[in-house]
Design goal:
Layout lengths: L7 H15 L6 H8 L13 H24 L4 H18 L1 H7 L5 H6 L1 H15 L7 H21 L9 H17 L16
């Protein structure tokens, strides 16, 4: 609907905001149409369907997240880079729960390959891990370890599932310390258990 100034990018941005407010799973074309004061049918000139909209939100959120991570890890290596990466990840997940949930959906691999944000995510993540002396298939295994640890922790923290009196931030930092030790002493690695050095 031209008079509403709708575009696919504007719809994705509004859907991302809505996701943070009501939850990613509650984002619908009808809710978005109500937000803009138009009929549902008006949106189909810009997005194909709900899945298309959700994919656009996922790509938008993924770009935002990797921008934060890239800024955090710039000029760092080893444990410093890992901690900066982890903290930026956690901060985004907790500040933008709906957007973060969008980043966890499965996206068609063709779209991933065409997305500069997704390519940048892979470059930064794998680059950080290569500094630990890892090569494939260990790189992929290490990425999965980080992702499952970060995601699991953030998902539990966001729902208040950690009931012990121990500060969750301190536990997070210890978890990152443990990941650093695991990466520096990766099973079968020829790195010799020596942590990578910061760039000079």
């Amino acid at each position: 609907m031209a008079r509403a100034g709708l575009t696919a990018d504007r719809l994705a941005a509004a859907a991302a905001e809505l996701a943070d407010e009501v939850g990613f799973e509650n984002v619908s074309l009808s809710a978005l149409a109500r937000h803009f004061g138009v009929k549902d049918a008006s949106l189909y000139s810009h997005v194909r369907n709900l899945q298309d909209l959700r994919t656009r939100v996922a790509l938008l959120a993924g770009g935002e997240m990797i921008d934060r991570i890239a800024a955090a890890v710039a000029g760092r290596a080893g444990k410093d880079a890992l901690a900066a990466f982890a903290d930026a990840y956690r901060e985004y997940a907790l500040q933008h729960p709906g957007r973060y949930a969008a980043t966890q959906i499965r996206i068609d691999q063709a779209l991933v390959a065409d997305s500069p944000a997704m390519r940048r995510t892979a470059e930064i993540t794998y680059g950080m891990l290569r500094a630990y002396g890892l090569e494939e298939p260990d790189l992929t295994d290490a990425v999965r370890l980080l992702r499952s640890t970060f995601h699991g922790y953030c998902a539990l923290e966001s729902t208040g599932a950690f009931g012990a009196p121990r500060d969750v931030r301190e536990s997070w930092e210890r978890a990152v310390d443990a990941l650093h030790v695991a990466l520096a002493n990766w099973p079968g690695s020829e790195h010799g258990g020596q942590p990578p050095q910061a760039p000079r």
